[in-house]
Amino acid sequence: MGRYLPWLRHEHIGPRREWNLSVEHVGTRDRRSHRRRVVTLRVAHVVGRVSCGHHVACPVGGRCLLMNTGERVFSRPSLGAWVTYGLGTENQNLPGFVAIGPGPIIEGARQYGSSFLPASYQGTFVSNLAQPLRNLSSLQVPRDRQRRELDALARLNGLHREPRADDDRLSARIEAFELAYRMQTEAPEAFDLAGETPATAKLYGLDQPKTEMFGRQCLLARRLVERGVRFVQLYHTTGAFQPWDQHSGLKAGHETNALATDQPIAGLLQDLKSRGLLDETLVIWGGEFGRTPTAEGKDGRDHHPFGFSMWLAGGGVRGGMAHGATDEFGWDAIEHPVHVHDLHATILHLLGLDHERLTYHFAGRDFRLTDVHGHVVREVLA
Fold first, then answer.
1. Fewest C-beta in 10 Å: which of 24, 99, 129, 228?
2. Which class for 118: exposed (0-12), middle (13-18), buried (19 or more C-beta within 10 A)?
3. Measured between alpha carbons, how far is 277 from 44 in angstroms, rounded to an integer?
4. How far apart are CA 11 and CA 9, in angstroms?
5. In the chain, which ranges are E strands?
6. What is the Cα–Cα distance from 344 to 99, expressed in whole angstroms?
């Protein structure tokens, strides 16, 4: 089964310069596909590039939701929730879906939430990298007593749940208690970076203040996917709210952001490959849109959803190619444009899931990530 790393925003100057990287490991149509993980982040090395165009005019929040959930207005499950719902997780002692971001993200939990899917499929959000999981262990209560207390609590909650069978929130809370108990045995080691070698820390840029924060996110993503976490999503939010949204000071801002992220991303890819994990991990890099090829004000660029690029690397992706192109101005994606629904359909396909058959019945109809849209972009498949 696969793992997934969080989505990151990364925008560059000029046409065709909006990159989004994700890594995913989930089940596929053959045995290798079913072992894939997913990681989402930004890097400077393009393996397979896709030219995207939303052709939808909406605010930043709406586009973030569209890229993460397939819907820009109404509440829908996130990509990570759909993948975890479809494939489950390999490690019952860790969350199946982890989202990591040291700062606030626009639209908050809606980007990694489960909406109408059972609440157990929502992402576990980690914001404090110094103490990723608070209150994980109790120094006062021995584990055997914790087990007896949880069993008693589960019986009481079960009685409370019987007349409320249609509400899955209590079931999700009961499972959260159980997961927290199981996590005491494995999570502390999984989230502890102290055991990594100095060479690995340097590879991710942990020895440099400007790359340390995002380097920690990328290294943590690798540790989680190799321990069976299905989906990991990384948000680069260090320093400000929406730090890549440069309506002014674009050159200086993007240089700062690129410096903070490029080495950690390259380190992640190199580390995954050296450990034999890259061929079974799907890495996706990008954001919700690009920047205009024209200036905004003195030194900025406006939002641009009509032609921008994302790249994918790892399991099942054909490397060393670019799919699609914009017009000569870098304004519209005119050659093999890929809609968000097409991207989602392709990601699910690489994980062994059919986007037309991965459904959930809610409010009188079957919902899916791609709704009634989406085509697999077979040209980017290995």
1. 129
2. middle
3. 20
4. 7
5. 21-24, 37-41, 48-52, 97-100, 124-126, 231-234, 281-285, 290-291, 303-304, 308-314, 321-323, 325-326, 333-335, 360-362, 365-367
6. 18
Strand partners, 100: 126, 234
Whether the CB-CB separation of 39 and 281 falls below 8 Å is answered with: yes
pLDDT mean over 19-31: 38
Q: Which one-letter DSSP state was computed for residue 376? A: -
pLDDT digits (tens, 9 = 90+) for 42-62: 333 334 566 666 555 566 778
Looking up tokens 């109404």, which residue turns up? 74
Structural contact between residues 1 and 28, judged by C-beta atoms closer than 8 angstroms: no
**Closest to 6 (Cα-Cα) out of 47, 38, 31:** 38
In whole angstroms, what is the distance from residue 105 CA to residue 249 CA? 21
Q: Could you please report the per-residue DSSP string of 81-103?
A: HHHHHHH--S-TTS-SEEEE-SS
Nearest C-alpha neighbor of 287 from the set 29, 7, 35? 7
